[in-house]
Structures are given as structure tokens and as C-alpha cells.
User: Which sequence fits this backbone?
């Protein structure tokens, strides 16, 4: 049976400046795209979205209240809700005084402030961010080391939800909405959950809310793409080349992965032991957070499941070694890796792959 959550009561006629702030990049991009595809039916219900260039979200991120004030002071007649979605605002809103200043600004024009976040299990979040870092050639330790560093230094990257959202709890008058990315809830789709929580009506007709256009912006490159990205960065550095000087870092190998459907075999770095440690580490905090904001147990929303580790360790056959080498040649060409250093690169590559 689907779980009914205790969510804040929001009336459709409330004048609100609403920010969906992530932190789940894929979910936020999905929400933003579906909002854009439904701009007209939302406008018919008095909802104004950010422009195509996200100028309002950018103004919030930069603290440019002049832009926000200009928008609030000249709203079209009938608008009583401004709605933004941008994962780039995740940490910005949690900084000192940011929410208070936004509240003061909104209050001058009769608007209250509301903030929403999508909540998922920490292991899913860590796995996603790890892949994002490796894909973009960021300095990243091994997956187990990365997990250990997060648990050891929560100030570096806080994914303890009670701690992370403490500032939201301490801001009087702020409407807080946390949407669990869970299959156990009545409305598991994050876009539909958001518009439902905001008391917005589904458009008339058989199609209802329009679907968003598919995007590959947040697609994981899969196990092979992660392996290739990690090894490529390591060898680029050993060849004395700055990864930041390459073209399309983060895109080139992902595109190769998508072309070959590697993205269908998603990377998952957790073995059972590491997953158990992480779940235990956050268990008490997660339970407190779930009871406080949803009135249910965390384990009801996110039942524990066995680890499903998927890691590519490199080519195992001659034909596979040949294929992966050819694809690395293609990757270097697209990245604009210096021609004079490619011999050195592949000497190191062959030593790493063939032993």
C-alpha cells in the first residue's frame, strides 16, 4: 500500500515565491523541463515560471535582489505564484542570511517564501556525485575512499539531512517541502508530487500534464565510461597535460558511452559491506528526519535492499582490448589531447591494461 505523507498545507491562492532547489540534479532537470513544457497551463493557474535563460534563479544564486525586485514589482495581472527549479541553488539557500533576505524582499510585495528539495538515499546520491566527478575528470579517490572521506568529514559535503537542512528549520515563516524519491509513496513522480503539493490542478484533456523533452545532461556514462574516464584522466596527468586544457571534458567519453549504449549498465560502487556501513552511519538521522517531515519511518520509504555492485575492471579479451583501445584513440582525438604526447599516453595505457 502506498504511503500517505504529512506534507505542509499549501493553498493555490497563496502568493508565494517558490524555489525548487535540488539537490538531485537529474530530478531537478526533469522538473524544470516539465515545468517549461507546461508553461501555458501553469500560467492559466496564476503561476509564473523563470525565463528560458533562468535569470531569476541566477539572481537568487548571485544575491542580485534588484533583478528579483524588478520582477516582483511588475507582475502580470493574476499571477500569485513564482516558481523556479534549479539544483544550483541547493547550497546557496543554506548560507547565512540568504533565506531571511529573500523573505524580507518577498514580504514587501505580499509574497511568502517556499522551498522544496527532493530527498533520496545517501548511497544513491554519493554514487551519482562520484560518477559526475569522474566523468568531469575531477581529482577523485577510489570509490571506497570517497565514501570514507564523506563520512569522516561531513563539513566538506553534508548529506546528513537533519544537519544539512538545519537552517531551513531555523527560518520562521518559511514553507519547507521535502519530496522523497521513493516508489513507496502515492505519487512517486517528483514533478507530479511537486505540482500536487502546490495545490495545482492537472490540465483538462486526456494528456494532462505534458511530458518533458528527454535530455542527456545528467546521464551516467555507465561502468565502462567510468572506467575509461578514470583511466584517461590518470594517464593525461602522467603525460604532463592539464585536464582542464582539454576540450569537452565530461562530454566526450559520455557521448561515446551513449553511442554504444554503455549508459544502460549503470555504475554502482557499493559492495554489501560498504553499503551496510553507510546505511548504519546515517540511520538515526534519517529516521529523525523522516518522522519530523513525513510522519513515517525512513525504512518504510526506503526499504533496505541488497547491494548491486556493478564495476567494470577493464577489458578481458583480446577483441575487447582492441575495441577499448580504439575508443580511447577516438576519445583523445575529440578531447584535443596533444598529438606529440599520444605515444607516451598509449605506452602507459598498454602497461595499465595489458600488464
Assistant:
Amino acid at each position: 500500500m502506498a504511503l500517505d505523507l504529512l506534507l505542509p498545507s499549501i493553498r493555490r491562492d497563496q502568493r508565494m515565491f517558490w524555489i525548487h532547489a535540488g539537490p538531485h540534479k537529474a530530478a531537478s532537470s526533469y522538473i524544470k523541463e516539465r515545468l517549461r513544457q507546461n508553461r501555458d497551463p501553469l500560467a492559466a493557474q496564476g503561476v509564473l515560471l523563470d525565463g528560458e535563460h533562468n535569470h531569476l534563479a541566477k539572481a537568487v544564486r548571485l544575491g542580485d535582489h534588484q533583478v528579483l525586485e524588478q520582477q516582483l514589482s511588475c507582475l502580470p495581472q493574476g499571477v500569485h505564484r513564482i516558481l523556479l527549479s534549479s539544483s544550483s541553488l541547493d547550497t546557496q539557500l543554506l548560507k547565512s542570511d540568504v533565506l531571511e533576505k529573500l523573505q524580507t524582499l518577498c514580504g514587501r510585495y505580499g509574497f511568502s517564501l517556499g522551498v522544496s528539495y527532493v530527498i533520496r538515499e545517501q548511497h544513491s546520491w554519493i554514487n551519482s556525485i562520484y560518477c559526475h566527478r569522474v566523468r568531469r575528470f575531477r581529482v577523485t579517490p577510489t570509490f571506497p575512499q570517497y565514501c570514507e572521506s564523506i563520512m569522516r568529514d561531513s563539513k566538506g559535503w553534508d548529506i546528513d539531512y537533519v544537519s544539512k537542512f538545519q537552517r531551513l528549520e531555523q527560518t520562521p515563516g518559511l514553507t519547507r517541502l521535502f519530496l522523497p524519491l521513493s516508489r513507496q509513496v502515492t505519487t512517486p513522480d517528483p514533478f507530479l508530487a511537486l505540482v500536487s503539493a502546490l495545490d495545482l490542478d492537472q490540465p483538462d484533456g486526456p494528456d494532462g500534464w505534458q511530458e518533458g523533452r528527454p535530455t542527456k545532461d545528467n546521464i551516467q556514462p555507465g561502468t565502462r565510461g567510468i572506467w575509461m574516464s578514470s583511466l584517461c584522466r590518470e594517464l593525461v596527468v602522467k603525460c604532463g597535460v592539464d585536464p582542464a586544457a582539454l576540450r569537452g571534458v565530461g562530454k566526450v567519453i559520455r557521448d561515446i558511452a551513449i553511442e554504444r549504449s554503455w549508459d544502460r549498465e549503470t555504475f554502482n560502487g557499493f559492495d554489501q559491506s560498504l553499503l551496510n556501513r553507510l546505511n548504519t552511519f546515517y540511520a538515526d538521522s534519517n529516521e529523525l528526519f523522516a518522522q519530523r517531515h513525513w510522519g513515517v519511518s525512513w525504512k518504510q520509504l526506503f526499504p533496505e535492499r541488497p547491494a548491486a555492485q556493478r564495476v567494470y575492471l577493464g577489458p578481458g579479451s583480446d577483441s575487447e582490448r582492441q575495441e577499448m583501445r580504439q575508443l580511447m584513440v577516438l576519445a583523445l582525438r575529440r578531447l584535443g589531447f596533444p598529438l606529440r604526447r599520444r605515444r607516451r599516453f598509449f605506452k602507459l595505457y598498454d602497461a595499465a591494461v595489458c600488464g
Q: What stands out?
A: The CA atoms of residues 160 and 202 lie 34 Å apart. Residues 222-265+314-354 form one domain. The chain has 16 helices and five strands.
